[in-house]
Give the backbone structure.
Amino acid sequence: MARHDPLLPNAAIVARREYRDRVRSRLFLISTAILMALALGVALSPIGLRYLDRSDVDRILVVADEPRLATGTVATANGIMNIPPPGVDLATWTAPFAIEPALDRATAMRELAAGEADALIDVTRNADGRLVVTYRTLGPPDGVRAQLAGFAALSVAILDWTSSLPPESQLGEFRTPEFSTEAISGPVEGGQAVDAVLVASRAFLGTVFIILMFISILIYGMWVATGVATEKSSRVMELMISAASPRQLLLGKVVGIGAAGLTQYLAISVPAVAVLAFQEPIARAVLGDAGAGLPIGGLTIGLLAAYGLFFLLGFVLFALIYAATGSFVSRPDDLQTLSLPLSLVAMAGYLSAIVILLGANGTLAAIASFLPPLSPFAMLARLMVGTVQPWELVLSVAILVATIAVVALATVRIYATGVLLYGQRPGLRRFLAAARRAG
Amino acid sequence: MTLEIDRITKRFGQTVALDALSFSAPRGRIFGFLGANGAGKTTTMRICLGILDADGGEARWDGTRTTDLPRRAWGYLPEERGLYPRMTVIDQLVYFASLYGEPADRARTAAHRWLERFRIPDYAHRRAEELSKGNQQKVQFIAAVLHDPEVLLMDEPFTGLDPVNLGLLRDAFLELRDAGRTIVFSTHQMEAAEALCESLAIVDHGRLVAGGTLAELKRTSRARTIRLGVEGEILPTWLGTLDGVAAVRPAAGVTELELRAGIEPRDVLAAALARGALVTRFEVAEPSLEAIFIERVGRPPDADDVVAEDGLERAGLAAEGAA
């Protein structure tokens, strides 16, 4: 076609109609309200959980035959079990264990049985002078806590042993060793190793992001396909195609529906993110001092921007494919047949991302993060767990953008042919034939 | 200043939809584009609009390729009718006009004027799905003319309209022509064409079989129309046995006959008198457009012996898919 049709203003006019058409529909309003409530509920759930679990500061009682052993055990257990994580503000940090001496063994056992205490460290001495330390819990013991208690027992024994040495023995002052961890490989961000707890938290956030992205691409992609198919089946396309170029119509459709999707998306996520951002003050208001300590961390502006970028690019890529599909069916009902293979493609991206979030970091993960249409999912997942070099990010985005350009050209041709073909049964062969003819 | 269709060829796979089709529609006139279903009318219009690409030849308006002209030079009423079902009439009219670059307020005023004209002013704020088919068709017509295009391509504009709406639409055609617009409309209804168009083209299987002004076509036609009245016989059945009588239309007191080349009116009269019929009326009229169509194409325009145009496209795509 020789006619030169600038994209604007017609693409904008089409986009505005598409946007209004969606946003004003009752279905849109209702689904947005429901999803908004759901997202708020999910965002508030950590605080809710902690509210239910707010006595989660473990109370550990210590009972010993000798008072000196009791005070010694309390001190060492405190030193070993209540170590603040690095970088935490000590003024707001609450120790996870409250370790206190019990009045006597009978009272302690009663308190433990009643669930008022979570554990009891019982220290006695054998006839041969050996210390016997028992870690008592109501139910089965927590492995990590038992291990910590074991270390505390060992320390008590060492202290007990050194105190039994003759006073004249030439023994220097006991010095606690310096202890730090160092990983030779692992998640990095800006050249700095990322803390494992942070990685776990990010893997969780990443899962949420990937699920949101997957669902939105499927839903809003289907909006595009249905929109095109409906225009075709109602034959209004006949008027549209003479009033505007396929490029204008397609761009307007993708942008308009994308904007409607984004509106719903923001309406859902802004309150939820606000709750997450202010969870500290909210938690304090609900829980008091026990509310301190972020349950979810590691979300940076950079990661949010990356999410926005990959969401946008991923949506555009899938929306174009969905538009081409929509232009090829005669009735919107036929889309059901074609939507399954399409959602399988998105599903592949989703699964690759989840596998990466679970720790896969091999060649396949790397390939997936460069290969559209998997890359929006996979690269975002790799970014979330911090294993991406800057050049990899640039390359992945470049490949994705180039793919979108190629797909857009093909979609325009397929669309221009497809929207005027009636009475077709959807079929891969036909689709490919038209695509080849378009190419 | 004309719309020239210059040797346009279009194939859908193995099927030839247009075969070096040429004709020209003069500016400021109503031009009839006649043919049976599947003759290639819709394909020709789509090629003019740039919706389809021709395999050969080109369409020109005033010497310029039609696809080089801005879209707003054209108004198109597609044969397949459709509107946005849940949008109000006025909203979609303004929307379509805005795609052609028409400012919203001007489009709105013009739309209300047209709705008034077509006697449906109360439907402006109704959803399109609430309108009857005929009224939807009128709204679509308005959508095609709202941006005041120079050339109007109307694909079967009169199909499915009742006589009142038919009259309204014909008046609108004449008014647009008087305002200097060029109207090309396709139809297989010969009465509508005969009543409206000054010149026309008859196509069959993608080929031009006749073209020119209506007067010229009638003058050069060898087809004859005879009106014959016979006392006591409402439909003289023996007429059908005469060679060269193409169509017989009985009317009150008079029977209209279309004669093919090879039989002269006086042969019919002689045959009637030979049978001893009491002839009360015998008139040789100029041939109707329908007679000319039958003469040139060999069958009436509503004979359903050709593949629908959709079918052609479908066949074309399937053929390519199999290749």
User: Anything to note?
Assistant: DSSP finds 15 helices and six strands in chain A.
